[in-house]
UniProtKB/TrEMBL annotation, chain A:
PROSITE patterns: STAS. It comes from the Bacteria. This is Anti-sigma factor antagonist. Belongs to the anti-sigma-factor antagonist family. InterPro entries: Anti-sigma_ant, STAS_dom, STAS_dom_sf. Gene3D superfamilies: STAS domain. Residues 18-104 form the STAS domain.
UniProtKB/TrEMBL annotation, chain B:
Its EC number is 2.7.11.1. This is Serine/threonine-protein kinase RsbW. The lineage of its organism: Bacteria, Bacillati, Bacillota, Clostridia, Eubacteriales. It is an enzyme of class 2 (transferase). Keywords: Kinase, Serine/threonine-protein kinase, Transferase. Residues 10-129 form the Histidine kinase/HSP90-like ATPase domain. The keyword Kinase applies. It comes from Fusibacter tunisiensis.
């Protein structure tokens, strides 16, 4: 399954909302990285990732998220993850990312 | 009796999903629950990622998925450059590393993991998971 990002500027929250849909893996990580960097270049804001339809993410995808998190932190912004599936919460917990990222 | 599915995959990122889906299909046939199927899928994905990213194997590597009565055995074999296993260190999770998490994830999700590797002689990773 391919990866699709649906990105919008949320005026009320003054944030980017990004719905991650499908799979982030070794073959789609570059797409994720490029699209996120493009948004962050356009406007430096907090990012809210809606993961309701994120079916799969592996360590290469987590690597992109970690490096992107470091990037947004430079501008004193942050990232939030919403509606993660249980298997992905398990992976975030295993890798300690649940302590770094805001998950709600 | 052990039955196995063996596939040969091109060392390219776009085929890792084929390995994952095949493994999760067999795990489902064997009666693993959803959580265990997701664990197997991720572990196989990570093992194949390591081959594609690091082994420099060419043009293919091998995946063997074997069914025992109460256990699935997964072998991923490449004929790439191998590595010094002694120099592998588990990641420091509080350091927010962007890479090096793959093997740690595999070891966390599977019941047993064996790695046979030698510089210049490829790598074989054997993972096992029991049906609960």
């Amino acid at each position: 399954m391919a990866l699709k990002l649906v990105s919008n500027y949320d005026e009320s929250l003054n944030s980017w909302t990004v719905a991650l849909q499908g799979e982030v893996d070794i073959s789609s990580k570059k797409q994720l990285k490029d699209e996120l960097i493009q948004l962050n270049t356009e406007k430096q804001l907090d990012f809210i990732f809606n993961c309701e339809n994120l079916e799969y993410i592996d360590s290469t995808g987590l690597g992109v998220l970690i490096s992107f998190y470091k990037e947004v932190k430079i501008n004193d912004k942050t990232v939030h993850f919403e509606k993660l599936k249980p298997s992905i919460i398990k992976l975030f917990t295993l890798t300690g990312l649940n302590k770094i990222f805001s998950i709600r | 009796m052990m039955e196995s599915v063996n596939i040969s995959l091109p060392c390219k990122p776009e085929y890792v999903s084929v390995a994952r889906l095949t493994a999760s299909c067999i795990a489902s046939q064997m009666g693993f629950d959803i959580e265990a199927i997701e664990d197997i899928k991720l572990a196989v994905g990570e093992a194949c990622n390591n081959v594609v990213l690091h082994s420099e194997c060419n043009p293919t590597y091998e995946l063997a998925l074997s069914k025992l009565e109460k256990q699935m055995i997964i072998e991923v074999l490449d004929h790439g450059k191998g590595f010094k296993f002694e120099s592998y260190h588990a990641p420091e999770l509080d350091q927010l590393q962007e890479s090096g998490l793959g093997l740690f994830i595999i070891q966390s999700l599977m019941d047993t993991v064996e790695i046979k590797t030698m510089e210049g002689n490829g790598t074989k990773i054997i993972m096992r998971k029991d049906v609960e």
